[in-house]
Amino acid sequence: MRPIDWAVLAATLLAIVVYGVWKGRKQRELSQYLLAGRQLKWPTIALSIMATQASAITFLSTPGQAYADGMRFVQFYLGLPIAMVILSITAVPVYHRLKVFTAYEYLETRFGPGTRTLTSGLFLLQRGLSTGITLYAPALIVSVILGWNIHLTNIAIGGLVIIYTTMGGTKAVSWTHVHQMLIALGGMAVALVIAVRALPHGVTMLEAARVAGRMGRLNAIDFSFDFTTPYNFWSGLIGGLLVALSYFGTDQSQVQRYLTGASVAESRLGLLLNGMIKVPMQFFILFVGAMVFVFYQFTAPPLFFNTVERAKIGQSRYAADYARLEEQHRALFNAKREKVQQLVGAMRAGNQSDVAIDTKQLRDVERRVAATRAAAADLIRKNDPKADGSDTNYIFLTFVIHFLPAGVVGLVLAAIFCAAMSATSSGLNSLASTSVVDIIRRFVWRDAGDHAYVRASKWMTVFWGLFAIGFAEFANRLGSLIEAVNKLGSLFYGTILGIFLLAFYTKRVGGHAAFIGALIGEAAVAWCAIFTNLAWLWWNVIGCAVGVVAALFAQAVLGATWPMKFRVSPS
Amino acid sequence: MRRGSTFEVRMKNEEEAPSEPTSSFSPRTSNLEPRWIRLYALVLTELALTIAVFYAFTKIFQ
């Protein structure tokens, strides 16, 4: 990092914090602090929704995912636009009419306090942990680049977010999201342009795409049906739809974003715009990763991108074995580079038979490269069973710090930090809302005034910020971060979604049956996660389906003795 | 837990809270006016086109 990079990074982050604090000043009522006074317009809502979902993990781990596994990850988002339509029709008007602060408040009107507490508790657990992972990603960047202590880095980044989220509340969070999202996308666009321009021999973006495609990195759509592979069209459409329904319809970190809308129409338009932009945006980020992959076909990549693990094995008793693998990797890279150049030449000449031969040979070499990388990862794990054997998260970062020019490194890092701050701030903001509205105001401190609840919300923001920082210490053993977050969410999303589906779409299921259904659904998900190799996207389907069926069954069998509805009446 | 406490919580958020639990079956929430249907159709059409483009992209470059 050169001084100009530091200047760009520091100025951007400082500006975001100051802007957030300034934008969120003078808020004394709870609806102002937690819902920005319900006055936001749809462009702000849309960008805030996008910024909440697009964390640093999105910008850091997703390109690495494309490098290692191709673009098939984009299929995970195919169900999202459908979910936006369903939620616009169903959830948004209900939440607006009830003027709830949290999604779980609605459940009490339907199923009673037990179900509300169960779902808000599951949310607090899941979102508290995943906010820790969200915070960990940029800490990883800085610790790798500068060798900083990762604990101190977590505290520094988390501290900045805590400052403006605590002081400015939801208004600060939503308005900073707008700028953070624009900076993040701008940074990625610059990275893409530079990755393509850095390709040698005048290789154009189209030629680079053809090389990436022939090496299996542009596999955006796969219609094959397989329960054990996480990313195909069907798991993306069905599993992804349920994840999106649950995430955007029942996860307070997202629900809170569109509850800030000035009207039902504003909230709906925000959700629908997100539905239209999200899939192309993910495609774009994955495409950046595919271009970085092509870049590394002409420039020698390291055998293993994690410099810390590389240094550790270099000083271990396996150092000689690792050095042999590195030598083998270098030889394979040289062979591969030659084949890529031949392939580009054959493409330019329009010689299809040569293209087919070169492609086949290139894929053979690529398979050997993959085997060598897998052997290196095995060696690293053999040396230290606790070591992180996945280097996916380090690939894009390595490219940024070694190959982008001065100033642009700072810009891309600022983009990644902005994304981290945006997702973390939404997480803390929603955790504080749920803690205060669904737990403290509901059970502990029932008749305090708005001023007291605002103060409690601020303290809960600080508490959850510290909790997230604490959990971030454990996040380095979770493999690909983007997958870790979604896997963690999938443990709970299906069950929570099942409860909300029962609430929105059935009239006959009561609170007790819904509660039992949720417990059985969660047990089914836990069984799948522990005892089967079912791909994690399907956990959402299992949790939702089992929970709904179990609740319907419980109501049918025991309905006579249990109330159908949790009827509300003035006390 | 007293059931009436639910109502208390809701009343803090809204002065005119509905007296019955709300679900999507309520006619007031069936927001399917033509302008919204057109917008929903636009979002779903864009998704269909995106999938078609991605499939073509995969086939062309593989």
Molecular structure report:
The complex is a heterodimer of chains A (571) and B (62). Chain A has 571 residues and is mainly alpha-helical. Chain A has helices at 3-23, 30-35, 42-53, 56-69, 80-89, 91-98, 103-111, 113-146, 150-197, 205-214, 233-250, 252-259, 264-298, 307-314, 319-349, 352-383, 392-403, 408-444, 450-472, 481-505, 511-531, 537-558. The longest helix of chain A is centred in the N-terminal third of the chain and has 48 residues, at 150-197. Chain A starts with a helix and ends in a 13-residue tail after the last helix. By secondary structure, chain B is mainly α. Classes of the chains: A mainly alpha (571), B mainly alpha (62). At the A-B interface, helix 5, helix 6, helix 7, helix 10 and helix 13 of A face helix 1 and helix 2 of B.
Oligomer: heterodimer
Poorly predicted runs of 5 or more residues of chain B? 1-30
Gyration radius of chain A (Cα, Å) is 25 Å
Termini separation of chain B comes to 62 Å
Order of helices and strands of chain B: HH
By secondary-structure content and strand pairing, the structural class of chain B works out as mainly alpha
The biggest beta sheet of chain B is recorded as: none
Largest sheet of chain A: none
Q: Give the terminus-to-terminus CA distance of chain A.
A: 64 Å
